[in-house]
Amino acid sequence: KTNQQWGGRFSEATDAFVARFTASVEFDRRLYRQDIQGSIAHARMLAKVGVLSEAERDDIIRGLSEIRMEIERGEFTWSVELEDVHMNIEAALTQKIGITGKKLHTGRSRNDQVATDIRLYLRDETDLVLQEITRLQQGLLDLAEREADTIMPGFTHLQTAQPVTFGHHLLAWFEMLSRDYERFVDCRKRINVMPLGAAALAGTTYPIDRFYTAELLNFSQPAGNSLDAVSDRDFAIEFCAASSLLLMHMTRMAEELILWTSAQFNFINLPDRFCTGSSIMPQKKNPDVPELVRGKSGRVFGHLMALLTLMKSQPLAYNKDNQEDKEPLFDTVDTVQGCLRAFADMIPALEARKPVMREAALRGFSTATDLADYLVRKGVAFRDAHEIVGLSVAYGIQSGQDLGEMSLDELRQFSDVIEADVAEVLTLEGSVAARDHIGGTAPNQVRAAVQRGRDALLIR
Ligand code: ARG
């Protein structure tokens, strides 16, 4: 027996392995809701332009709604012989309502149907991603506000550089996520265009009203070219690109969280509920969540490459290659949403070990630049100031003390412009408070940035 939906011109049944090899229902059944939503809109449009009667439209809508409920109750039998989600649902509809079911596919092809389903799906998933980014950002703002005055060492090359506030560090993450958010918003505009009506590739001879269908499905507009509409998956690639950048940012956060929970840094504590232990080493508490986020990024970068390669050199219009778009896309959606959820839950719960951070900032000559700036204010040229402070640091290394621990006389060996007022400059609080401009690390500025961040989230 040949496939009932396209068997007409065939004289033998599909090879059993080929049937399984070409089938996608195992994974594209995930699109059942969008498939039914799109079919209902298509049927309404066909009735509006007089291709279907109102009674036929109503039968189709009722049948499809029942099928949706059967799927959701787990009562629907999916069949690999019926290849994909589209033909499974259409066959079930015909079984349910008879000949009218066979009219649903009038003026439509699986090519515009599947492209529409994926766009409907990805539009909803993008909205969830946007919500979760916002939730994570809210958590960062709350934490940054709590930690606006907490001092830690800032690093370059992972070597102690200058003191910063922990709140400021967290707000760096916030900024990365703001750009990621914008990328998804922008990507959504190009997802939200409707392929339906393109039919197989050239459009259709029926008097369809694509603006009406687009309105029913909340698309911003029908796609402008039927060949392009059924064939390109750039919107999915773009989603994976935005996801890759987001996960790249999240791996940077993950890496720091992992470092900071180590005994060597000991800057933060992650609550036990986000960690796991070791089956052999009783003392262990491992930061699995950030480690997994760091690891899972590999999948998403891989999926981006897979989709780019899938699309590369495809001649117009639809090619079966595109059936391979779904698994990478679905896994990207699951991975991104999972990582966001884990971080949005975990990050607001992390505890900063303020004394440890402060102690670390006191080591490593983190206020050396402040001393150089102090000398400049006393009239020394910056390059000379740099040299003077370098010599003081070398003395400190040899005598085992940080700049703030040296007596005034010791400091004055290197420059006689140094006076008692240097003490304030060499304190951690003085150092961070002095960087008091927009984008700087001063606690005031952190609080102002938190306020700006709150305002930005409010108008989303
Ligand atoms: N399962 C197919 C896909 O995912 C649906 C479109 C198939 N169209 C076709 N002419 N074979 O792309």
From TrEMBL:
Its main location: cytoplasm. Residues 365-433 form the Argininosuccinate lyase C-terminal domain. It is an enzyme of class 4 (lyase). PROSITE patterns: FUMARATE_LYASES (PS00163). Keywords: Amino-acid biosynthesis, Arginine biosynthesis, Cytoplasm, Lyase. GO terms for molecular function: argininosuccinate lyase activity. Its EC number is 4.3.2.1. Residues 8-302 form the Fumarate lyase N-terminal domain. It is found in: Cytoplasm. It comes from the Bacteria. NCBIfam families: argH (TIGR00838). In the N-terminal section; belongs to the lyase 1 family. Argininosuccinate lyase subfamily. This is Argininosuccinate lyase. It comes from Nitrincola tapanii. The gene is argH.
